[in-house]
Amino acid sequence: MSSSGFASQNGAGGSYTNGPSQNPVGVYPSAQGLMAPPLPGYMNSLPTKGPPPTGPGFSSRNQPSPVAPPASPGLRAPPQASSTPPPISSYSQHPPQPSGWSGVTSAPLAPPAAPGLRAPPQASATPPPISSYSQHPPPPSGWSGVTSAPPTAPGLGAPPQASATPPPINSYSQHPPPPSGWSGVTSAPVAPPAAPGLRAPPVGNHVSGGTSTPPVFQNTMQPPAALQHAALYPAPPPQMTRPMGSSYPSLQPAYHSPPAPPQLHPQPVSQLSPSLAALSLQSQPPEALRVVNLLQERRLLPPGPVTPPTPCLPQDLQKLNCCPEVFRCTLTSIPQTQALLNKAKLPLGLLLHPFKDLSQLPVVTSSNIVRCRSCRTYINPFVTFVDARRWKCNLCHRVNDVPEEFMYNPVSRSYGAPHKRPEVQNATIEFIAPSEYMLRPPQPAVYLFVLDVSHNAVETGYLEVVCQSLLDNLDSLPGDTRTKIGFITFDSTIHFYNLQEGLSQPQMLIVSDIDDVFIPTPDSLLVNLSECKELVQDLLASLPQMFSRTMETQSGLGPALQAAFKLLSPTGGRMSVFQTQLPTVGIGALRPREEPSQKPSQKAAPKEVQHLNPATDFYKKLALDCSGHHVAVDLFLLSAQYCDLSSLGCISRYSAGSVYYYPSYHKQHSPAQTERFQKDLKRYLTRKIGFEAVMRIRCTKGLSIHTFHGNFFVRSTDLLSLANVNPDAGFAVQMSIEENLLDLQMVSFQAALLYTSSKGERRIRVHTLCLPVVNSLTDIFAGADVQAITALLASMAVDRCVSASLGDARDALINAAIDTLASYRASVLSIQQPGLLAPACLRLFPLYILALLKHKAFRTSAGSRLDERLFCMCQLKSQPLLYLMLMIHPSLYRVDDLSDEGALNISERTIPQPRALQLSVEQLSRDGAFLMDCGTVLYLWVGRSCSPVFLTQVLGVESYTALPLLMNQLPELDTAESSRLRALIDWLRERRPFHPVLHVIRDESPLKAELLQNLIEDLSESALSYYEFLLHLQQQICK
Length: 1039
Ligand SMILES: [Zn+2]
Fold this sequence. Notes:
With about 1050 residues, the protein is an alpha+beta fold. It is about 25% helix and about 20% strand. The chain is globular. Bound molecules: zinc ion. Zinc ion (ZN) binds near residues 372, 375, 393, 396 and 398.
């Protein structure tokens, strides 16, 4: 058995899943990882509530972790304690504070408490409901491909008739007719719970509307007419034959049985855990547990995409569950105890894509957002209605009153059925927040561009692309009439641009004292876009020429960032920084740290990589100041030279920004990168954006969140500060089980993202995920989500690289595979058999682990560039799972024989769906052509003996030798073969927010080596083949 897992170094006992955290939350920004242990000087300035994150501090699970408790009023608080409305919790305001970072955790900014915390006025006898409910149409921006499928919101499918005649006070409108499911996976039967009679509630119990609770209703403000209305609503009695998706069968019983039921949901256990039932009662195990001997089974990939497991929940709850593309757990069956989790040796954590573009999103406007009085959870599909007037929180179990206005359902226009409100029918929903969720008026959209104009920058030609792209998309920047924009350029000095209305042309103001930067005319540098558009356009048109002859080679990035921060700090906003070299002057200047000698030598046993940690804390400190003032910094790095991304990346990481990297960018020399940069910029400029955002993740009492992964600043134990939130950002969290979940059949997780839209609305997007609790290892394994597990381990390994070493991280990854399979063999398998055995649901686990070991972030082969490695690490921590998996394990398809068989038909396009192949050179044949999709890049490899039909009909060349060594476009030929392949490539590209470039290559192409490196099942210079890796695992397990 293996020894060092992810936690072992920290002394946490056997498993990495176990324990508090390497990065105690809520305390330091530095805690989250990627960039390493906080620098001492910096740490000291942080007010903390817990022990420093460094050091061997893994307290054991049972000790009350000093880190855990405070901060978040609310989280797992005992019932009363937190029910008092946190006073000024605010979200606050811009602290009037100056820069000192200490400001961030201290009072004003602090706890955020997010708006959310303010207890909204207790509802009961409040004014009549004024709620409107609408379903927004797909976001405009270009990229809606991924979600494009069918629409959303499970449960919404319901009420068609509702919108016919708008009710007097409430309005409900549904723009696009809701098709079927939301997204691939949960989608299925969104619609009406087909099963009106499926789980009929106990007959005698069912009463329609609320007639059984007379006393309560009599005092309400609603006239009896409302009751009658409710009664008119179809199918009064027992069988729940409501026509539309009335869906809530599972809650009905509870709803009608007065005393609080002992169980969360009154289903028989057997319904809860089919896998358990199947296992114990039948001889045939579910597919997930089919025993696979990895040494024998070579064809592991499913024909289509790898899909996440479906949690074993009652069908009606499952239908309402959150879409796995948005919210997913590594284990779809949650172990009852930490001991059980430790035994499984699988990591427990969540993966989120909270601001994902959705083709449809239910939006509710309500004067009173219903939340648990104790833990502030938003009412959601997984609460229980104890009776007509009370609901029980699924996170803390407190029983809350149903506010009067919630009794009215704007969707069905009925009264007395709160469980049919959209809030209780949709696991993903957005609220337009009332005024108590803001302490200052929502900020306008503010965009500041900070552009490197040194000689090196101008030489790459990037400036033309940025300016042109901005000119093209100026009208598509998200915002309203308040939108502001500004520009700063810099080399060894800083240049501001006065764009004040009334000027005949933009005025350039140069500040050459970069040691003490001041802002020349603060009021005219960030200007109203609609009022000053012409000046902005003038500037963009002339900017590329203004510096075309510059000989200035120095780069004062640090001072330019300081200036930009000063400019944005009064409002908050987005800073877009374009940098093409290592900063050389002023504060934040860096020195090259990548030396040839640091490239790992071939024979040194523990191959190590130095300088994964930032060289200075300047960028991180500034990022924290930015975060405190709602400024996010996005970094575009375009450089062939070492730029020290580990230092520069901090500016985006802690301010919730994004990092883009274009190595060797040059407008002439690398047309493919230019194409990618242009497409990425378009997406970047026009995608949705949320300002002054915070995200809080709550979970059922007993579970505890301890480490976060992604770009943000952790403000308190469960609250992430996101100066900006964008639809392409993913997050992960690790969890532990602090109290046994013995009495629970299911647990829930809720992520609430509060943000200001570009139109100045305060909005809250809430996602709720519900999962069953199980008490056997077999069930835990049956519910393992191998992709989510891999992604979470990847994030953990990045942290490990930085806090310990690359070698250590690699060992931990390998040990994760060994420990898991060993646990499976020892505890789940009833019949011992030879071979390396895995349950079918984890059959890809060793392959994915090997893929990680060969990934640019973790590989040890010679010649890996430091910045490239760092960038890959950034991506592992911030990409949504969907895209991340392609970057870890590319998809390979044979494409010279595409057919329409099994093709998708999307808006009159036919998209072939070739089978995914194992990543081995064995799969490539000389007489074929193969497409490898690596997420950010596509390779089309053409074999030497490829059929002439493919060469002429698709590539437009007469022979193999006529094929150029590098080609980035497919000719648009009017042939069936050509349209099929182009349809496939277009479709792959549309499904992601970044633009993968296409490289058409043949054997002689220089890029062929990159293609081969991605064939991860093969032996490479420094790494085992898949088969050897399996043998290694087997050896370790049987030791
Ligand atoms: Zn609660």
